[in-house]
Design goal:
With 822 residues, this protein is an alpha+beta fold. It is built from 28 helices and 34 strands. The structure holds ligand ANZ and zinc ion.
Length: 822
Amino acid sequence: MVERYNFKEIEEKWRDFWKERGLFRTDIEDVEHKFYYLNMFPYPSGEMHVGHGRNYIIGDCLTRFYLMNGYNVLNPMGWDAFGLPAENAAIRHRSHPRKWTYAAIERYKEQFRALGIQFDWGREVTTCEPEYYRWTQWLFLKLYEHGLAYRDEAFVNWCPSCKTVLANEQVIGGKCERCGTRVEKKRLTQWFFKITAYAERLLKDLELLKEWPARVKLMQRNWIGRSEGADVLFKLADRDGELKVFTTRPDTLFGATFIVIAPEHPLVERVLAEEGDGQLKEFVARALTVSEIERGAADAEKEGAFSGWWAINPVNDEKIPIYIANYVLMGYGTGAIMAVPAHDERDFQFAKRYGLPIVRVIESAVSRGKLEEAYTGEGHLVNSGQFNGLSTEEGGRRIVEWLAERGLGEFAVNYRLRDWLISRQRYWGTPIPIIYCDKCGIVPVPEKDLPVLLPQVEAVPKEGLAGIPGFAETTCPICGGPARRETDTMDTFVDSSWYYLRYISPRDNERPFDTRLVNAWLPVDQYVGGVEHAILHLLYSRFITKALKDMGLLDFDEPFARLFTQGMVCLEGQAMSSSRGIVVSPDEIIAKYGADTNRVYTLFMGPPEKDVDWSGDDIVGSHRFLKRVWQLVGAHGCAPLHRASDQQAVAPQKMDERDRRLWRRLHRTIKVVTADIHSFHFNTAVSSLMELVNELYAYVAEGEINRPLFKVAIEDLILMLSPFAPFICEELWQRLGHSEAILENSWPGFDERALAAEEREIVVQVNGRVRGRLTIPAELASDQEELKKRALEIEAIRRQLDGRELKRVIVVPGKLVNLVVG
Ligand code: ANZ
Ligand code: ZN
């Protein structure tokens, strides 16, 4: 009788083994075989669910795999520990966000331990600790020193309930993502990072990222949003001043029949100061409550009001009215447009609604006469004075040249990307290290005075740092006079924009990172995380890396060489989410089936880049598989193998056909599983291991066991399964008589002869002439249908057959396929 698979006992026995044995500790000086694996570090909140687990299980599986392949793997873990949810929870419970955050971190650690997920814990970083945020402040100072951090007034999304500025992405349907309150617009002086200075490089260097998913690169490209066009100056009529517009269609300038400015445009204040009109004021106030995202939506209602002011079209000196309207966004271009209703759909709708003139200036074969809708295509210019008859392209260029000669315009490139607004009116974040002095102005905190510590408080005030008495009072580092501290903290995306550098020397008190070692270890070899970070986090990290490189502190352009974004785990079609209570906890699964089953199922349930439904039924299948492995080894496991000499003894020429079949299957499995793990095909790797187990059962049932061969097979199976199911494998390994850890062994290699023996080469002819060859597993070499199918898949053969009728197929099994065509 084989002992029962007592996963509870087994897993508890091994839980601390790997850590105690130091198997995941990285020798940071050994850079020759380095492999930097990195999971996006978590924001610790509440409980981990099996969806989060997917991320780290992938990481742990890969780490074990690379370790066995002889790499010096660095797989660190840390905590993106500042942030609003902890702060809000603390305000609600009149406690401190630190408490809430550390409780979550402890839970995460327990769950990692339960799942057998290992890290080099000696390198843990926690962004809310002074030893970390001191260097986030250092980063701010460096950016400031290099002109990349600046202060400016900005209209910000303001949640009156959370009393904080929200990023555009945090405004959902005009409401605060966190509390659902209607978001308002407020003008505040804020700190920005000048990411736009890097727009072109962030765009161009996407080409360097050969091993990033195409869709992530596309999302970044769209976010940066490069447009070529021109800036055109319109003088105000009857008043001093001018308006600059950005257009991608300077060729349509003669068709500009009105100007539209955004409600936030600086000119609006001037207009409102002069025009006592209550209606206009009301319109502007109302427009300002709607987020730019909603206003920018193509189907948003186009609403506006005439400002009462006029501008002059520089090419024909016509006086055209200036409107204020919601569909022009201050956050893009210059916040002002020349409206060409004949050739722009939004302008067309607006002109129809407000009865404004529509003047066609582009004509083409497909678009003449009366316009029923905007014609946005190409053609030649009409109604355009001396430019008539030119093509849209040439006309546009000539018009801009004409403007440029007169100082009225120039070619311009515009990016959708905005500067990074990093100010947050919160407590639970990195304090911005700036001091304001009446005499000296803006004074950066001297590096030696870092960190600017978060003041200790019992309970967090809603107003953030600004609400803490005494925090702001300080003395000026230059003149020694009384001064005030900045009370904004930084966006937590700043904390996470550089953490991958800190892991290399996490306890260094002299500098943020060790340039020599960072240059040796980075770029990160494999970065894994959720696609929800495809834009901001990755863009910010890329920006910071480039900025640091320009400061001479790094020597690489991109932080992450290879990126993998895993799909979401769903429950009945809905993404798992702690906040919405749609979760399966790994605790449940571990209690019922064990951590190994949780891991195997997670990796088996589907391609890891795809969203997948967590199905209760299928877990049982993964559990059954592990039980079968347990029983197989329990029933037939043999004395320990002296691996080197016994491998010698397993010579294929001494084996009979039945042994050889097992031997071939084993080596084919090694080859496939190795390649699959490399390419993130964990699910197919698991199914190959399942097939191998089936084969082993069949082998045992059929007759006598070739002991050396069988031992090799069993041991290789365990080695290969260990990254997926480390507990059971470590236990079986020990029972097979080994005293060393699995990770102290090498990943099994495969014998080319075993693969060669199973393949045949087939000649493919067309009308009797050799046109190609194909290799096919020996088992299939006599299968006529299969041979025909594969022959027809060969590109060269397809070209031969192109357009010709296939009359007959002659197959000589194991040798040849002849396609007879007419
Ligand atoms: C005149 C014109 C004529 C335009 C025409 C288009 C077609 P992309 O490709 O996105 O860069 N625009 C410029 N700034 C804007 C803002 N802040 N809010 C809303 N719309 C804005 O598009 C640039 C075009 O979008 C610009 O070219 C401008 O309209 C508009 F037949 O100028 B166009
Ligand atoms: Zn001063």
